[in-house]
Amino acid sequence: MIKSLLIRNFRLFKEIEIKRLSRINLFVGKNNSGKSCLIEALQIYATKGHPQNLYDIISSRDEEWESIISDENETPIQEVAGPFGYLFHGYALPGVDGEAIEIGPTEDSSRQLKIALRAFQIIEDEDGRRRRTPVDKNSINDEFVDIQFALEATQNNERCNYVNLNSHSSIYKRPLYTGLKDFNINHQVVPTRNLSDDKLSILWDNINLTDLEKEVVSCLKIIDPNIEGVALVGNLSERTVRKAKRIPIIRYKGIKERIPLKTMGDGLTRLFHIILALVNSKNGFLLIDEFENGLHWSTHSRIWDIIIRLSEELNVQIIATTHSRDCIKGFYEVWSAKEVPASFYRLEADPFKGSKIINYTCEMLSDAVESDVEVR
Amino acid sequence: MGNICKHKGKKVLLVEGKNDCHVVLALCQYHSLPKTFGIYECENDDGLLKRLNALIIQPDPPEAIGIVIDADDFDVTGRWQQIQHKIRDHEYTFPGSPDIRGTILSDNPGRPDLGIWLMPNNQNPGMLEDFLMEMADQDAISSAFQCVKIAKQNGLSSFKDVHISKAIIHTYLAWQDEPGKPLGQSITAHSLKADTEIATIFVGWLKELFTL
């Protein structure tokens, strides 16, 4: 659980500070106010800047396009801004040892993750092992032939991850150096467009035949009480086994044949993804971008109710975004009825800091919902 | 054409009910105030305070919000503290007691300017009708008062004690030209005088708050 959050120099955020994060956190804001950036920042924090995660974040926004067409490019790394430059505020890589991306709790600087551009030289030691030795930015000159530029992620001055920048794009994906991997924070992300089929399979298998499977099914019953069970099966219409993806199917009361979950509509699919991600986030984070997608207004408060209960039982911290007034209303109903440790914020564009945060108390949110005043 | 008492804009005056709305409109018309602000009636005091709390931090908040709220049978300090408590998280600095010429809080950067008028006069308990009594012909209002008192003594009335000023003002309006005009129209028809001291102070507060 992270109790406060400071983000510097990351995408839209020049600097943003959330003084108090609760176990359940809902964010609203107009387009381009930084909601998705916030989710990305927490992913990076949870993976300690793992190269695969950085690359996934970049490619999910099509930001790798330039690196694919300029594979043979030999110009110095600072001149080729993309694709990792997109992660920095101002969409450009800083200079060597320049301003770092910082993400972490405000009150504990030893847990803040820093990602900065560094220069290294590959040097063979006495035993013939090739090692990276840091090169100070002032001593970089034309005489260094095999200088290597990399993004280095550190926490408490210890390197956690390392992304080599002057290589072909495919190399970006390969973790060249993985540090203290076991300290990664368990987390799941439910993007706007739901989980990938592969991810869904993994998450399902992870809880299959456990009590958590029952939770998932009982949650789906919120939307349709006639659902009796769920399974994931191979799609037999695929031509090769390798390509075959698995799809969720359900058993429905009164119907002999099993039917694909998607037949039942977008709401059930969304809920299935959210709950499956939640029960897989034990002791970690659940990040949900655009919570409401596909969900009917009348179901929101019941869904929040179950999410809040599970998050307590499994010790999951939830950070969700929404555009929907119904989602906000459902959230507020549960928040004000029970003493739930929750927070509600609005992100707003700010001419100086890129983005700023407005924190609502439960009373403020309740007053706004009841007097029909806009909060988004 | 939207409801004139449901204005949403950059300069807004929150009032408790429709009567308050029409009284303010009539006063503005009499004093020829430019139409740079609008009025929103919140149905009751509770709704007014909730709307105030929410408007202060809505996206693109108003530049200035005024509230006209009855002091009721609170002593004025009680109502004053209630307002202060409602918006405690928005970091306004309240003086110990309301300004008798209407309070304006304008030194809160990033937040709307806030004007507060406690009916009738920022000092006494009471409501809109007490304010209006000050605008009536004083001899006539005394007679109306006697009239109400006699009705009450003889067991002919059923109004609650807190509503005595409502009873008096409507008795007064019953014997003006076109008996029984609504409150706002009575100002327009000059049965209630819009240039009495209290009305002038009120209009001065509106002008300053909305920088007219």
Give a structural overview.
The complex is a heterodimer of chains A (376) and B (212). Chain A has 376 residues and is α+β, with helices and mostly antiparallel strands. Chain A is built from 10 helices and 17 strands. Helices cover 28% and strands 28% of the residues of chain A. Residues 68-73, 75-81 and 168-180 of chain A have low confidence and may be disordered. Chain B has 212 residues and is an alpha/beta fold. Chain B has a 5-stranded mixed β-sheet with strand order 2-1-3-5-4, sandwiched between helices. In chain B, strand 1 (11-15), helix 1 and strand 2 form a beta-alpha-beta unit. The longest helix of chain B is centred in the C-terminal third of the chain and has 16 residues, at 138-153. Classes of the chains: A alpha+beta (376), B alpha/beta (212). The A-B interface holds A 30, 346, 348, 358, 360-361, 363-364, 366-368, 370-371, 373-376 and B 42, 47, 49-51, 53-55, 57-59, 89.
Observed structural traits:
heterodimer; A: about 375 residues; alpha+beta; eight-stranded antiparallel sheet; six-stranded mixed sheet; globular; B: about 210 residues; alpha/beta; five-stranded mixed sheet; 8 helices; 5 strands
Task: Give the SSE order of chain A as H and E letters.
Answer: EEEHHHEEEEEHEEHHEEEHEHEHEEH
Number of strands of chain B: 5
The tally of helices of chain A reads: 10
Number of strands of chain A: 17
Runs of chain B with pLDDT <50, length 5+? none
Roughly how many Å apart are the termini of chain A?
Answer: 26 Å
The class by helix and strand makeup of chain B works out as alpha/beta
Computed Rg of chain B = 17 Å
Percentage of β-strand residues of chain A? 25-35%
Residue stretches of chain A low in confidence (pLDDT < 50, at least 5 long) are 68-73, 75-81, 168-180
Q: Class by helix and strand content of chain A?
A: alpha+beta
